Amino acid sequence: MSTESATPLLELVGIRAGYGTIDVLHGVDLRVMPGQVYALLGPNGAGKTTTLGVASGQIHPHAGSVLLDGHEVNGVSPDRLARAGVCLIPEGRGIFPNLSVAENLRMSTYAGVSYKQVQERAFAQFPRLQERRNQMAGTLSGGEQQMLAMSRALSTDPAILMLDELSMGLAPIIVEELYEQVASLAEAGLSILIVEQFAQAVLGVANEAAIMLHGRIQRTGPPAEIAEELTAAYLGMS
Amino acid sequence: MIFGVRHSVAVATALGTLAAVIIAVFTWKGAQVTSETFLVTTYIGLFLGALWAMYATGLVVVYTTTGVFNFAQGAIGVFAAFFYWELHVNRGWHSILALFVVVGLFAPALGVVLDIVIMRRLRTASLVVQLMVTVAIMVLLLSVVGDIWEADTARRVPYLFGINNGIDLGPSQLPWHRLIVFVVAIAIAVAMRYLLRRTRIGTAMRAVVDNRELAALNGARPNVVSSTSWALGSMLGALGGILIAPELGLDPATLNNVVIIAFAAAAFGALKNLPMAVIGAMLIGLLRAHTVAWLDFGSDFRFAHLSIAPLLLLFVVIALPQARLEVGRLVHHLRRHERFTKWWEGLIGCGVIILLAVAFSGGWLDFGIWDPGAWGSRELNSANEAMALALIGLSLVPLIGWAGQINFAPLAFAGFGAFVYLKVIGGGWVTFLGLDRLGLDPQDIRDIDNGYWILLVGLLCAPLGALVALPAARLRGLYLALMTMAFAQAMSLIFFPNPWVMPIIGTGRQFPHIELFGVTFNDRRGFFLLLMCVFAVVVYALVMLRRSRYGRRWMAINDSQAAAATLGVPVVWTKVVVYALSAVIAGIAGVFWATVSGNVDSVQGFDLLIGFNIVLLVAAAGVSIPVAGIFLIFIPLFTGLGHRLEDSGNVDFLVTLLDIMTTYGPGMLVLGMVFNPRGAIFEMGRGFSPILPWRSDARAEIAAENAQKREPEIGELGIERPFTPEEVIAIDRRLGILDEVVPKEGYGAARS
């Protein structure tokens, strides 16, 4: 892919950020080019989720800048970024448990797609959700909940999609099904930033990968190469 | 399951209905029921139901869209009704204009201000703090109303379009106002249901309660959404208050108590289901109207018809399944810096309290204008009342402060204690039990030292506490608060006004002066001393209990019932014990409380607001610290100072300031809990304890905190380069390895 000359869709430059007085990210640089699927890998506590928090506006960095399509968006609230097309599916079932499936879908309409369209697209992708449209989302199975969370990505035409630990706590067969959806989104040209702890599923989809350790990106490269180094990185041999 | 209803609920409903039928048979007036009177009664019931449905709708909307159960919902209505009166009646504005200004402008503004200033910060607070803060808002709003619109003038809010215009229904007339209320109530309920279920903003309102961050990730503006929710809830409360005021009259307490009926109605819908809440309100309205029409409870139970709502609330809360009450809300747990008080520390502390009381009441300490030695009977009386309330407040320390069991009924327990005491020293039981045949004379009872009887009262109150604990054992948080509130309200309407319970005597004292160790405490100064001593003893007992196995168990079930149970803590038994203990303390306190004035106002004296105030004051001072209650003494102290300044023709503004402090102080203090959930005394204690010579631990903690402010940034955690000695110390400190708090040589020299 020759995206070197284009403006990166998402760019983090020298990001330092954390919670309270404790810094988690110590200078993160990361670029997601248009149409790229970028896999951010790393062990527990490396700062992957914090990176997504910064990119989606939930966490304001102490230093560095966040650029969306070349515009600096430091300090812009997460809801404004969401309406502008940044779609983050957070870790661990990004759903409203006390709202019905249909109401959860209604919450996806802030990004500008009509309720009718959101429903049509979501139900076309995941027919199981249609069967359960009036059920409280909290009573769905784990896989169904993740489908519901994913349906926001599928139905709202985001500019960039960020997925945080999509596979966490799910049966392998469901993970496979979800990643098929991710792959088709990627084929359609959507830029995606995926965070995963266990890399196997992602590496099939991604065309760029990075290892994150101790709050900084240690290495970036083609997924195949990164996969080889991953074990060493996890064991602290990098 | 019977028709999809749980077995236990069906049985409870059947038993409740049976009890209602039996009561109805025994209290039947004997009036003839014609279809005409029946219809008119039904129409009155439906109208009452509509009024309450409006309040209940407001409650349910606020609860589903903010996650906060707003005890101040009724008080917002009270304020709005008075404001409407001011504009419409006092200033002569047109009713539509006044209605628009109050409901359309003022109410939403109030809601938004409440959200921005207070509610936003309550999101991660514990339920106790949340409840206390909304109760504080209620009390504050009511005191503002009392201050602006003093009770000395009679006020009436007129009916819209007058009471005499309306539709002719044959036997009676349906005024436009009532028709409007009925239509508006139903329309609002339907509109709210539509808003919450079928629109995006309504969905977002509920979504924000579920998961605020996710709502923002979806693109909703969480702050705007919750401000809208509060504005809407406040508008509903205001409209309800204005429409109900013509029926009930403009009395803050009466208007505010409507909210209990709304609680009962809302509980029918598990606090979240609007249609069920409206049905509940209608049901209560019908029950009330038909009860008044056909039943006569006699003068002994003259308020019984008012107790339908609290009894139903009690019943619903106990009988209904508790599904999905806990919203997925993250409670911010406090880091505990708690340290057990040593037995001798407690002893010294309580000794100091008693010594100060002796010095104060004896007049040996001279503070100039503050000199309590010069206290008149007025000040001493309010000091005694304050200390009696502080004693009742102590009963809440183990219950709320340690075991986390919310209780709004401390006054009911105290009143029960007073009642038992009255019966015990009355001596009637001697003849009743046939003990007089064994040579015991009822007259002798009065000669026995009162101390024994007071202890006996405590023991006799324990079963009541245990009784309340049994339903409470399966309730948690909000439902527990509602249950105890309903219990208190039912007691104050059915039990205490009964002349057998609290006989009304013309003059003189219903409760004789207390006699202990041969001394009769018949002057106010002596009684003040006695109260202080009892307070100190109870505080000491509590401090020791906190160190015991039970103290640990209470803290454990407060933190996590499930975890405590898996450790082998008998949860139900632990709760029974703490409730019984609380009832014992409250019962004994009740004896002293009743003896302060010698008489108990059996009708007004047990008003729910007084109970709320006790809970509030204790919470503001610090509900987990026994000695905190002593700060109630500041109320009479300030009042006394105000009186004295006034008497000596002193500066006006100081008097006003003190007046404001005593009226609004407690409420403001509770609002302070938003920022400091552990109450005022906790911070004071932290400031004070390092002064004590043996508290090197407190000094070390302060030193560590100060050092942390100065310490170097740990930064890269030693990945890039080795740690410097300063960083090693800083890490040790953060990990709590505090062998050397501040090295003598300063940073850098140590540990190189």
Write structural notes for this entry:
With 238 residues, chain A is α/β, with parallel strands linked by helices. Chain A is 34% helix and 26% strand. A six-stranded mixed sheet of chain A has the order 6-7-8-3-9-10, with helices on both faces. In chain A, strands 2-1-4-5 form a four-stranded antiparallel sheet, covered by helices on one side. The longest helix of chain A has 16 residues, at 172-187. Chain B is mainly alpha-helical and 752 residues long. Chain B has three domains: 31-295, Orthogonal Bundle (ABC transporter involved in vitamin B12 uptake, BtuC), CATH 1.10.3470; 381-678, Orthogonal Bundle (ABC transporter involved in vitamin B12 uptake, BtuC); 711-751, no CATH class. Chain B is 67% helix and 1% strand. Chain B is built from 30 helices and four strands. Chain B has a two-stranded antiparallel ribbon. In chain B, strands 3-4 form a two-stranded antiparallel ribbon. In chain B, β1 and β2 (173-175) form a beta hairpin. In chain B, α7 packs across α8 and α14 packs parallel to α21. The A-B interface holds A 23, 26, 56, 58, 77-79, 82-83, 87-88, 90, 94-99, 103, 106-111, 115, 138, 152, 214 and B 197, 200, 203-204, 206-207, 209-211, 213-222, 324, 327-328, 715-717, 719.
